[in-house]
Amino acid sequence: MDIVQIKRLKKYFGEGARLVKALDGVTLSMEKGKFTAVVGASGSGKTTLLNLIGGLYTPTEGTVIVNGIDLARLSEDQRTIFRRRNIGFVFQRYHLVPELTVEENILFPLALDNLRPDRDYFFRLTDMLGLDGRLKDYPYMLSGGAQQCAAIARAFITKPSIILADEPTGSFDIKTSQNISGMMKAVTENFRQTLILITHNQELSQLADRVIHIQNGRVVSS
Questions:
Q1: Which residues, including other chains, have CB under 8 Å from residue 172's CB and lie 6 or more apart?
Q2: Do residues 88 and 155 make contact, with C-beta atoms less than 8 angstroms apart?
Q3: Domain range holding 131?
Q4: pTM for this one?
Q5: pLDDT at 13 (0 to 100)
Q6: Is 212 part of a structural domain of the chain?
Q7: Considering only 45-59, 107-121, 201-215, which range has the smallest mean pLDDT?
Q8: Which of 17, 37, 179, 191 has the fewest CB atoms in 10 Å of its CB?
Q9: 205 assigned to some structural domain
Q10: pLDDT in tens, 128-160
């Protein structure tokens, strides 16, 4: 079953001589419960693709259907709610709130909807990511890798349909990158979620069930 369906997708920025065709006619689908890596050089369009799947951008042309919902048919407020309840984001920068503990940072998305956490799920998740014993710490007390694990836990805590990860290990050495990517894959498989990871690292992409290569705004292999 496909959780993402993309048809003739275009995203252009600027106009005239400054027109940039970030995506130029992409059609593809992504299977539910699988780990998909999107690979390409800087400027290839992979981050634009991720932002369109996440409803952060609206297409110039084409459709993006996520979990059966055509995102273009939603208002901005509706897309915000849809993202919060269906999509977890992991970025290269952790975006943790420095005044909150690790536990408070992880649970923050639930607080936005006044939802009570599933404590069993919370402890299983933080245990898998090696955060047990660090939950009362503040972000500045953690290594970069541990802060990224906290950001990953925060993305998973709402039990979203899809996790979108944009170069989540881009600032780490290869060993740390492999460890973090491996943990993300393990968490995804354990909780039967869908992971779409953007990377320029060919070695990390080998962890994925499927690899999509993008070049100059087009899919060149899948």
A1: 144, 145, 148, 180
A2: yes
A3: 34-56+75-221
A4: 0.89
A5: 95
A6: yes
A7: 201-215
A8: 17
A9: yes
A10: 888 989 999 999 999 988 998 999 999 999 999
- Percent of the chain topping pLDDT 90: 66
Burial 56-88 (b: 16+ CB within 10 A, else e): bbebeebebbbbeeebeebeeeebeebbeebbb
CB 152 within 8 A of CB 129: yes
In a domain, 196, yes or no: yes
What tokens does 39 get?
């690979």
- Quote the tokens at residue 206: 């080998």
Of 44, 48, 37, which Cα lies nearest the Cα of 215?
44
In three-state form (DSSP H/G/I as H, E/B as E, the rest C), the secondary structure along 77-93 is: HHHHHHHHHHEEEEECC
Distance CA 12, CA 109 (A): 31
- 131 is a domain residue: yes
The CATH number that applies at residue 46 is 3.40.50.300
pLDDT confidence of residue 34: 92
The one-letter code for the residue type at 111 is A
Number of separate domains in the chain: 1
Q: What is the pLDDT of residue 170?
A: 73
Q: Distance between CA 208 and CA 127 in Å, rounded?
A: 23
